[in-house]
Design brief:
The complex is a heterodimer of chains A (about 120) and B (about 120). Chain A is about 0% helix and about 45% strand. Helix content of chain B is about 0%, strand content about 55%. Chain B is built from no helices and 11 strands. At the A-B interface, strand 4, strand 5, strand 9 and strand 10 of A face strand 4, strand 5, strand 9 and strand 10 of B.
Chain lengths: ~120, ~120
C-alpha cells in the first residue's frame, strides 16, 4: 500500500506569512507524529496525535505553531507569522497502534516538506 | 535537546569493508531504533531493538544495545556504495497517554557514512 505522503514537497514563503503543511498517513495508522529537521541535525519532535487528539504537543516551539487532525487521518501543521528560523524540513510519521505495547512501534516517515522562509 | 549522540560524525570506508557507528543516550528508554536518510529527506527505518534485548540482526545489519552503558552500535557488514547515507539512532520512551503504543522519538545528530567504490 501507499506510504506516508506529504504536500507540498517544497514551500517557499516570505517572512510573516502563514503556511500549512499536509500529511497523509498510512491507512489504518492511528498514531501520527510531526518532526522538524534543520540542516545537519537530526529530526526534532514537534507533536504527536493519537486518533484526533494531540496526545503530546510539548515539542511545538511556540504558539505560532499549531496542528490538527480532525478526522483522525490527514493532519495539517500550521505556522503563523513565519520567521526565517522556521526554515527546515518538516517530517511526518505514522505508526500502527498496538494496545498495551508501549513504545514498540516502528514509525514510517514521509518524504518531508522543505520550508524556506525568505 | 537531542538525547542521542552518534559517533563518529562522519565515516568514510571502501566498498566491502565493515562500518560501525555508535550511539549514546542519557535516559531510560523503551527501545532504540536506527534510521537511514538519503539526501536530507525520507527517513527509512532499519531496525528496532527493545530495552530487554542485547543484540539483533537484519541482513547485513547488526545492532547491539547496552543499557548499563546507555549505548548502542550499528554494524553494517560488507558495505556497498549504495549504503552511503546518514544514519541516525533514535530513542523512544512513552508519551503520557495511557495504554497506547505511541512514543516520540528523540534523534541524535547522525553519522554521515560514505562508502567509496
Amino acid at each position: 500500500g501507499a506510504g506516508v505522503s506529504q504536500t507540498p514537497s517544497n514551500k517557499v514563503t516570505e517572512k510573516g506569512k502563514y503556511v500549512e503543511l499536509r500529511c497523509d498517513p498510512i491507512s489504518g495508522h492511528t498514531a501520527l507524529y510531526w518532526y522538524r529537521q534543520s540542516l545537519g541535525q537530526g529530526p526534532e519532535f514537534l507533536i504527536y496525535f493519537q486518533g484526533t487528539g494531540a496526545a503530546d504537543d510539548s515539542g511545538l516551539p511556540n504558539d505560532r505553531f499549531f496542528a490538527v487532525r480532525p478526522e483522525g487521518s490527514v493532519s495539517t501543521l500550521k505556522i503563523q507569522r513565519t520567521e526565517r528560523g522556521d526554515s527546515a524540513v518538516y517530517l511526518c510519521a505514522s505508526s500502527q497502534e498496538t494496545s498495551g505495547r508501549l513504545g514498540y512501534n516502528e514509525q514510517f516517515f514521509g518524504p518531508g516538506t522543505r520550508l524556506t522562509v525568505l | 535537546s537531542q538525547q542521542g549522540e552518534e559517533d563518529p560524525q562522519a565515516l568514510s570506508i571502501q566498498e566491502g569493508e565493515n562500518a560501525t557507528m555508535n550511539c549514546s543516550y542519557k535516559t531510560s528508554i523503551n527501545n532504540l531504533q536506527w534510521y537511514r536518510q538519503n539526501s536530507g529527506r525520507g527517513l527509512v527505518h532499519l531496525i528496532l531493538i527493545r530495552s530487554n534485548e542485547r543484540e539483533k540482526h537484519s541482513g547485513r545489519l547488526r545492532v547491539t544495545l547496552d543499557t548499563s552503558k546507555k549505548s548502542s552500535s550499528l554494524l553494517i557488514t560488507a558495505s556497498r556504495a549504495a549504503d552511503t547515507a546518514s544514519y541516525f539512532c533514535a530513542t523512544a520512551f512513552p508519551v503520557p497517554v495511557k495504554e497506547t503504543s505511541g512514543s516520540r522519538l528523540t534523534f541524535g545528530e547522525g553519522t554521515q557514512l560514505t562508502v567509496n567504490p
